[in-house]
Amino acid sequence: MLLKLLHRAFLATLTAFALYAITANQSQAESPFQMIRLGIINGPEEELALVAKDVAKTKNLYIQLVNFDDYNIPNEALVGKDIDANAFQTIPFMNAQVKARNYKLIILGKTWAEPLGFYSNKIKSIQELSDHAKIAIPNDPSNQGRALNLLAKANLIQLRKDAPSLPKLGDIAVNPHHYQLVDLDAAQLSRSLDDVTMAAVNTNFVIPAGINPQSALLKEDIKNNPYDNIIVVRQGDENRPEMKILLESFQSDEVKKVMKEKFHGAIVPAW
Questions:
Q1: How far apart are CA 10 and CA 17, in angstroms?
Q2: Domain ranges of the chain
Q3: CATH homologous superfamily of domain 32-114+225-269?
Q4: What CATH class does 117-219 carry?
Q5: CB–CB of 195/170 below 8 Å?
Q6: pTM of the entire structure?
Q7: Residue closest to 172 by CA, chosen among 147, 206, 199, 195
Q8: Using the 8-state DSSP alphabet, how is residue 263 labeled?
Q9: Residue 15 vs residues 11, 18, 19, 28: alpha-carbon distances, Å
Q10: Mean pLDDT of residues grouped by 10 in the chain (271 residues)?
Q11: Partner residues linked to 181 by β-bridges
């Protein structure tokens, strides 16, 4: 009798487990949520991405954020299918990487603009910049070009007449004040301010470093800024329904509200 009872109990347990597994699988199969992995850069952009993530949840899309601290990695991760999209770069940056590495990438849409600026711990105005001053600029092609264009616009240097839209250090034709131009990784520039007279720092590194974006000695114009940030996906993925939701979530009123309330013009909508 005891063996029969134990056998029945075992069968009941096995049946219950099987029913639970079937129910769980059905529930998972019927779940309306889609999931994508989105590459972002650490810093204030992550805060905006978290807002977009919450918006996407209301549209049955779960966004898994994958953080990077190096501009050169997210596109490689996207091409390698470690992520499904990224939201960190400007149009010229993407174009430069596509040309250099033959990446098959496409712009999904615009997110925001973050004007590049020159900042200093040693001087209060650009008029105080002395001859032979040490100036740090980014070493990646896109941001280096932006920094050099900004210096040229302020008549601090002159570029070759045939310089590309994103010039390099070698495109400087005249450096009348003999500035010492040092190129560093973009993430290191805010940390270099005690060692140089001024440095060109991207907004997504300015805010985490505790630098007031309004203290820039030189700064790109916000209006008609050619360096709008974008969401990028692999070619062929741009028409996936979840990508449409991703873009709508980033271009939402909720994201725009946080930009205005938290970043006070340092980051502005680009759509």
A1: 11
A2: 32-114+225-269, 117-219
A3: Periplasmic binding protein-like II (3.40.190.10)
A4: alpha beta
A5: no
A6: 0.74
A7: 147
A8: I
A9: 6, 5, 6, 20
A10: 44 45 45 87 91 98 95 95 97 92 97 94 97 97 94 98 95 98 95 97 89 93 86 98 98 96 87 91
A11: 135
